[in-house]
Amino acid sequence: MLATRFKKAARVKHARLSLVKALRFELELLGCKLLVQVFAHVSYRSLCTISHLVGALAARVSSLGDDFAKQNVDLALPEKSPTERSRLVEMSYVNFAQTMLSLFWSATKSQAEIARVARLSGFDEVNERAKTTGKPLILTTFHFGNWELSSLGVAISGRPVLIVGEDFKNPLLRPFFHRLRSRFGSEVVPQAGAAVRLLRHLKGGGDVAFLFDLTMPPAPKGAVISAFGSPRLEMSVTPLHAILAKRTGAIWVPVISTPDGRRGVHIKAMPPIDIPDDMSINEAVQRGWDLLERTVTSRPDLYLWAYRHFRYRPSDANRVYPKYARPSPALDALKLEVRTDVTPTRS
């Protein structure tokens, strides 16, 4: 009888937790919809002012706990003074706030209004090469500057892209954000099955876009790159953009978006990255990373540091990793695979 009562209590508790979670999901979606309505009446200049307040507050709150941004900046940029690093962390939060709030702001804006703040350069040369060769584009960038307005600006210019969307813990937010990012002809696809969709899209002559700086769980056929500092930190990232570029012959174009004060965002297409036949996929991924990392180190205040970029620590690490990092036999196996270019046998 006592066991039965315990089971019944557990079911009730689970139901309550499910109800609380469902309510939270609905409130999060409602909050996002309210932000769209609020920022429909806000100028871009005012948005920048609000972003500074929100970002500074977020930096203060995060400093009370395990601040991933501070841990990352301390290790990646040790040459900076403690005061400089603290300021960089705060401005990173400000930039993230501005990026996300600008996505809400864009929801009710016309193409002309967004084009006034999302200004492109370098795309004429890229477009000419695509026209001459008949090849589509693979656009890659980091979580740097304003990546949300960057994708919208590129779509408005006449090159809508297929984007791999992030997975949300709140399933109600996925279609909401997909609609915001799919304006002006772009399309957002979920991570599951994305490789096949991207390949088909490229073969059909369509362009695709990637954010490839977030750490992925180490897995066979992945990529291991070295990043930031000296000695360098090691990360497991997606190699999909390099694989698709090599397989389809698509033109791989790094893109950088840099906020221009309160006037808008400068979106620059950099010279394409060519992959020689004798270059491995991992080497190609590292080449793309190094190019964009130079931009990050020149303006570290615009990078998304509040993420567990270095969560997997190799057993042969020759430097300190963040406190949140954990040993990863899977990363060790992937490093062996990359060095030998064969998948290690699993016991």
Identify the notable features of this structure and list them briefly.
two-stranded antiparallel ribbon; 11 strands; single chain; 12 helices; 14% strand; alpha/beta; 347 residues
Provide a quick synopsis of the model.
With 347 residues, this protein is of the alpha/beta class. The chain is 51% helix and 14% strand.
Major beta sheet summary? 7 strands, mixed
Shape: globular
Rg computed from alpha carbons, rounded to a whole number of angstroms: 22 Å
Number of helices: 12
Strand content: 5-15%
Coarse structural class? alpha/beta
The chain-level mean pLDDT equals: 90
Order of helices and strands: HHHHHEHEHEHEHEEEHEEHEEH
Helical content class: 40-55%
With strands numbered from the N-terminus, the spatial order across the biggest sheet is 1-9-8-2-5-3-4
Low-confidence stretches: 342-347
Count of extended strands = 11
First-last Cα distance = 46 Å
Q: What are the SSEs and their pairings?
A:
Elements: H1 2-39, H2 44-62, H3 68-76, H4 82-106, H5 111-117, E1 118-121, H6 123-133, E2 137-141, H7 147-156, E3 161-164, H8 173-181, E4 187-189, H9 194-203, E5 207-211, E6 223-227, E7 233-237, H10 240-248, E8 251-259, E9 265-269, H11 281-298, E10 312-313, E11 326-327, H12 329-340
Parallel strand pairs: 1-9, 2-5, 2-8, 3-4, 3-5, 10-11
Antiparallel strand pairs: 6-7, 8-9
Helix pairs in contact: 1-4, 2-4, 3-4, 10-11
